[in-house]
């Protein structure tokens, strides 16, 4: 048999192997995701390899959970070392990792109290509960009448409580009845915020940049104005930094661009560097004091394995200056994207390495471009119908950006 025939035979076997994994997942899994058909088997830094051995540059970072890159050795070492000691105690007992994790998060965020959970949605649900109880116990809003203001086009997860204030029809269809107590205003609209506030308003919950909504950046000064409006009306300002936080936008937190001091922050995703589900609600002494033992909790929230991983993940962000890298390389990348002479591109927007390329509606949707990029060795994903999200790990180099731009230019100018 010739070398050519052998190679073709191997290629067919690999292809069958890929299809096997796709078919297996489709047969036994719920149809609640629409992934690109790349079966990833290995990752390191900014690169991943599929089951066939093909190499790709990861430009999604698991929706910003991999700011530190795939399988960062320092975080991996912390995970392995802690896993060999003790992984779970429940919060019925104390563990020797949690206090240091709290301290580190408090120092990085500028807020004194931490309540650990697992997923980002759990962190947001924790914030909602804290805000409501604060409203009744501290502000004096009549029981069960607290209102929380949110913005249209928001995304904070998919629990019943969270989808209750979503404005995306698909997230709500078939899942009612919904939780009351939310008001929706246009994102970035200061006047609408003022008008929405009543004596029953407990909080304003907002993303500094809307990630799932299409990488929407609000007008300059919006967050700072919102902070002052909230202060003037005894309304809590709660910022959802689950996607935008921990270096992604070029600052440790996106709200730091406007020197905003929120009453609470939700964090997750990159809090573990992609090794483990870890999230937290971080807030003021006054807000956190409303919780009593038994009011809220999680068996896995704050477990020693999570705390050890979280400590290492935060250390990597600080020690490797990932926020600064995101600012510098993000500016470099966005400048190159804006220089593309593409008939498809309507707008390039974002901060740091959270970037959205919005396409004209007549371009035929962002997904077909993501499929074409995958064939060129670059993995990105559409958000909404017409936006390609580019969010590589923050450890990426300018040389790797140049490599990516060759492929992006090829696809977006063809």
Task: Kindly describe this structure.
By secondary structure, this protein is an alpha/beta fold. The protein has a domain of 247 residues: 3-Layer(aba) Sandwich (Aspartate Aminotransferase, domain 2). Helices cover 39% and strands 17% of the residues. It has 14 helices and 15 strands. It has a seven-stranded mixed β-sheet with strand order 4-10-9-8-7-5-6, sandwiched between helices. Strands 1-2-3-13 form a four-stranded mixed β-sheet. Strands 11-12-15-14 form a four-stranded antiparallel β-sheet, covered by helices on one side. Strand 1 and strand 2 form a beta hairpin. The model has no long low-confidence stretch (mean pLDDT 96). It comes from Hydrococcus rivularis NIES-593. Keywords: Amino-acid biosynthesis, Aminotransferase, Proline biosynthesis, Pyridoxal phosphate, Transferase.
